[in-house]
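Running this now, will post back.
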Amino acid sequence: MLVGLVAGALGWLLTRSESVGYSVLYGAASVVIPTALMAWGVTSSAMSRRASGHVISAFMSFVLWEGVKLLLAVAMLWSAPRIVPDLNWLALLAGLVVVLKVYWFGFWIQTRR
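Update: finished.
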């Protein structure tokens, strides 16, 4: 989320447009919020605690929460024009891509250790 905040501030500073800053922030949030919900569901929910000893149940829990994550991300992107005033789709896409690339950068750093 920190990278999304920095990208939103940078977008606002470079363009002097609040709508660009909000669009970048919303794009970042449309990745971070569903992913955080999935992480909670897979690790901390009551369903995950019940499924912890069974491989098939744990896999099905993962599949369920992945579906929830995808549906929430699509719903957030679909509702973006109603939520963000003067939405800039290119800025929204930039925020989304920046946050997704940070995940891969973190994964790359972990594999180099």
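Residues 2-107 form one domain. More later if anyone needs it.
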